[in-house]
């Protein structure tokens, strides 16, 4: 499992470690790792380090010192290294080391900086480290914007300047790196958008912080973690032991959501799917997924909060395409009155936002909103949620008493008193209608199989993203990706699960 930490947690660990080491040891370790990564990049892009053009953007803090010492190491290997000194002060030891190695340093000048960046093979962003917060001041903001014009690769030192290391917030100009070399431990803001987009690929350099780190604030499951959590049938398994999931979804107006959510559950390995809805979605589900046991709901029974006609289930999926009228509300109340885990998505979230009493239940509840739906649940503008996804998903889990899966370019899973899990799979091609319905079916199948809400949501997001990559065709070496439809994701689930 990949774990990530806030700036305060990292600084505390660094102080504890530095107290046991000679002065300057941590910076030397960081600079050595940074230089090694940059040398590898230069060798890959130019064939060698010697003669390459490297530009260092240097701020006032230790982040600038890391970059200067790394630049000195590259200069000793024959790189032409030039530093733009943008801070009110400069790390003296790092600057002396760079000059001694043959590198050059220049006070900040916008025209000169633009010229240097345009010709650079590699740009090292050492403006602001993990202590930075809020918008970049000048001239850092201008330099961050100028990196977009750089001719070569942009490498961020520890965290891209302009990205909040703890949350991933970006409140103005920020460096967009091809690669971020981070020291000691992953920073939470490197894994969560918008920070993750600015970070590019992230490479960790071990400087010895491990024994001094507390419990993480953020975690990301690996393929091995997911493989260990996924249920597998044994010799004595039958369809009931594998998990029976009930799905209350679809309406005469929104029939596709029913077909897709059932498809996600069937393809994700549910032992049995019991689908309940009005006549038209039931007809279409029967035609597309004959494996499902279907029930046309009797409105009079639903109004009495009775789902006995559906049969016994071990978890419910509620909401995709359900509608938000009185009958849909009655279905929601009936489902949420049961004593089994319930996943609430789409229209179900709208119903819950209007009537929070629906969430007063003892059994586990998983909510799967996108930012707009979470906005309605919390009464917070969508823009604020998008800007601070970590803070708001944590708040939602605590306030709503549920496991919350916040969908988006970075999918987050939060449960109170647990690290927020960041999903690392997926593709931009997932941004198409109906894929969230498939995700609901996958998570419902895992809930019915006995996974906790936290694990079911986390594994479902991972598998969903992996299936999307598989469907888009970009997993094979040398192949690009192509557009996909939601049903393609459901159909690709068996292949994605085989890889795990």
From TrEMBL:
<dbReference type="InterPro" id="IPR029056">
    <property type="entry name" value="Ribokinase-like"/>
</dbReference>
<dbReference type="GO" id="GO:0110051">
    <property type="term" value="P:metabolite repair"/>
</dbReference>
<keyword id="KW-0511">Multifunctional enzyme</keyword>
<feature type="binding site">
    <location>
        <position position="140"/>
    </location>
    <ligand>
        <name>(6S)-NADPHX</name>
    </ligand>
</feature>
<comment type="function">
    <text>Catalyzes the dehydration of the S-form of NAD(P)HX at the expense of ADP, which is converted to AMP. Together with NAD(P)HX epimerase, which catalyzes the epimerization of the S- and R-forms, the enzyme allows the repair of both epimers of NAD(P)HX, a damaged form of NAD(P)H that is a result of enzymatic or heat-dependent hydration.</text>
</comment>
<keyword id="KW-0521">NADP</keyword>
<feature type="binding site">
    <location>
        <position position="63"/>
    </location>
    <ligand>
        <name>K(+)</name>
    </ligand>
</feature>
<dbReference type="GO" id="GO:0046496">
    <property type="term" value="P:nicotinamide nucleotide metabolic process"/>
</dbReference>
<feature type="binding site">
    <location>
        <position position="125"/>
    </location>
    <ligand>
        <name>K(+)</name>
    </ligand>
</feature>
<comment type="similarity">
    <text>In the N-terminal section; belongs to the NnrE/AIBP family.</text>
</comment>
<feature type="binding site">
    <location>
        <position position="158"/>
    </location>
    <ligand>
        <name>(6S)-NADPHX</name>
    </ligand>
</feature>
<feature type="binding site">
    <location>
        <position position="437"/>
    </location>
    <ligand>
        <name>(6S)-NADPHX</name>
    </ligand>
</feature>
<keyword id="KW-0067">ATP-binding</keyword>
<dbReference type="GO" id="GO:0052855">
    <property type="term" value="F:ADP-dependent NAD(P)H-hydrate dehydratase activity"/>
</dbReference>
<dbReference type="InterPro" id="IPR036652">
    <property type="entry name" value="YjeF_N_dom_sf"/>
</dbReference>
<keyword id="KW-0413">Isomerase</keyword>
<feature type="binding site">
    <location>
        <position position="370"/>
    </location>
    <ligand>
        <name>(6S)-NADPHX</name>
    </ligand>
</feature>
<keyword id="KW-0547">Nucleotide-binding</keyword>
<feature type="binding site">
    <location>
        <begin position="62"/>
        <end position="66"/>
    </location>
    <ligand>
        <name>(6S)-NADPHX</name>
    </ligand>
</feature>
<dbReference type="InterPro" id="IPR000631">
    <property type="entry name" value="CARKD"/>
</dbReference>
<keyword id="KW-0630">Potassium</keyword>
<dbReference type="GO" id="GO:0005524">
    <property type="term" value="F:ATP binding"/>
</dbReference>
<dbReference type="GO" id="GO:0052856">
    <property type="term" value="F:NAD(P)HX epimerase activity"/>
</dbReference>
<comment type="function">
    <text>Catalyzes the epimerization of the S- and R-forms of NAD(P)HX, a damaged form of NAD(P)H that is a result of enzymatic or heat-dependent hydration. This is a prerequisite for the S-specific NAD(P)H-hydrate dehydratase to allow the repair of both epimers of NAD(P)HX.</text>
</comment>
<protein>
    <recommendedName>
        <fullName>Bifunctional NAD(P)H-hydrate repair enzyme</fullName>
        <ecNumber>4.2.1.136</ecNumber>
        <ecNumber>5.1.99.6</ecNumber>
    </recommendedName>
</protein>
<comment type="similarity">
    <text>Belongs to the NnrE/AIBP family.</text>
</comment>
<dbReference type="InterPro" id="IPR030677">
    <property type="entry name" value="Nnr"/>
</dbReference>
<dbReference type="GO" id="GO:0046872">
    <property type="term" value="F:metal ion binding"/>
</dbReference>
<dbReference type="Pfam" id="PF03853">
    <property type="entry name" value="YjeF_N"/>
</dbReference>
<keyword id="KW-0456">Lyase</keyword>
<feature type="binding site">
    <location>
        <position position="257"/>
    </location>
    <ligand>
        <name>(6S)-NADPHX</name>
    </ligand>
</feature>
<keyword id="KW-0520">NAD</keyword>
<feature type="binding site">
    <location>
        <begin position="407"/>
        <end position="411"/>
    </location>
    <ligand>
        <name>AMP</name>
    </ligand>
</feature>
<feature type="domain" description="YjeF C-terminal">
    <location>
        <begin position="222"/>
        <end position="500"/>
    </location>
</feature>
<feature type="binding site">
    <location>
        <begin position="129"/>
        <end position="135"/>
    </location>
    <ligand>
        <name>(6S)-NADPHX</name>
    </ligand>
</feature>
<feature type="binding site">
    <location>
        <position position="321"/>
    </location>
    <ligand>
        <name>(6S)-NADPHX</name>
    </ligand>
</feature>
<feature type="binding site">
    <location>
        <position position="436"/>
    </location>
    <ligand>
        <name>AMP</name>
    </ligand>
</feature>
<keyword id="KW-0479">Metal-binding</keyword>
<comment type="subunit">
    <text>Homotetramer.</text>
</comment>
<feature type="domain" description="YjeF N-terminal">
    <location>
        <begin position="10"/>
        <end position="215"/>
    </location>
</feature>
<feature type="binding site">
    <location>
        <position position="161"/>
    </location>
    <ligand>
        <name>K(+)</name>
    </ligand>
</feature>
<dbReference type="InterPro" id="IPR004443">
    <property type="entry name" value="YjeF_N_dom"/>
</dbReference>
């Amino acid at each position: 499992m990949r774990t990530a930490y806030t700036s305060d947690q990292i600084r505390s660990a660094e102080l504890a470690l530095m107290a046991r080491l000679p002065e300057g040891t941590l910076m030397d370790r960081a600079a050595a790792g940074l230089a090694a990564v940059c040398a590898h990049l230069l060798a890959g892009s130019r064939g060698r380090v010697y003669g390459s053009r490297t530009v260092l953007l240097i701020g006032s803090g230790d982040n600038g010192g890391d970059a200067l010492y790394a630049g000195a190491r590259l200069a000793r290997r024959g790189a032409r290294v030039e530093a733009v000194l943008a801070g009110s002060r400069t790390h003296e030891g790092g600057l002396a080391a760079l000059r001694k190695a043959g590198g050059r340093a220049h006070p900040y000048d916008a025209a000169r900086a633009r010229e240097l960046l345009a010709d650079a093979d590699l740009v090292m962003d050492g403006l602001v480290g993990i202590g930075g917060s809020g918008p970049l001041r000048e001239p850092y903001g201008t330099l961050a914007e100028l990196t977009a014009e750089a001719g070569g690769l942009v490498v961020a030192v520890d965290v891209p300047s302009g990205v909040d290391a703890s949350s991933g917030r970006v409140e103005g100009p920020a460096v967009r790196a091809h690669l971020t070399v981070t020291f000691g431990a992953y920073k939470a803001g490197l894994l969560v958008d918008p920070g993750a987009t600015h970070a590019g690929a992230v490479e960790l350099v071990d400087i010895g912080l491990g024994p001094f780190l507390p419990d993480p604030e953020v975690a990301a499951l690996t393929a091995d973690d997911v493989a260990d959590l996924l249920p597998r049938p044994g010799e004595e398994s039958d369809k009931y032991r594998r998990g029976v999931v009930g799905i209350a979804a679809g309406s005469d107006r929104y029939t596709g959501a029913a077909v897709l959510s059932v498809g996600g559950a069937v393809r994700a390995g549910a032992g049995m799917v019991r689908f309940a809805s009005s006549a038209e979605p039931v007809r279409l589900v029967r035609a597309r997924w004959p494996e499902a046991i279907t029930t046309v709901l009797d409105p009079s029974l639903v109004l009495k909060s009775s789902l006995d006609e559906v049969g016994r289930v071990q978890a419910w999926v509620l909401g995709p395409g359900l509608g938000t009228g009185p009958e849909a509300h009655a279905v929601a109340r009936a489902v949420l009155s049961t004593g089994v885990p319930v996943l609430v998505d789409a229209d179900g979230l709208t119903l819950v936002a209007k009537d929070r009493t629906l969430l007063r239940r003892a059994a586990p509840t998983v909510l799967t909103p996108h930012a707009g739906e979470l906005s309605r649940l919390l009464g917070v503008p969508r823009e604020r949620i998008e800007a601070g996804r970590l803070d708001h998903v944590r708040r939602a889990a605590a306030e709503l008493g549920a496991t919350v899966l916040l969908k988006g370019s970075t999918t987050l899973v939060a449960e109170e008193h647990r690290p927020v899990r960041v999903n690392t799979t997926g593709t931009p091609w997932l941004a198409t209608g109906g894929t969230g319905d498939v995700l609901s079916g996958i998570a419902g199948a895992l809930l019915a199989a006995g996974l906790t809400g936290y694990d079911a949501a986390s594994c479902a997001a991972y598998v969903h993203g992996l299936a999307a990559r598989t469907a888009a065709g970009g997993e094979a070496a040398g192949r690009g990706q192509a557009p996909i439809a939601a049903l393609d994701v459901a159909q690709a689930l068996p292949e994605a699960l085989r890889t795990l």
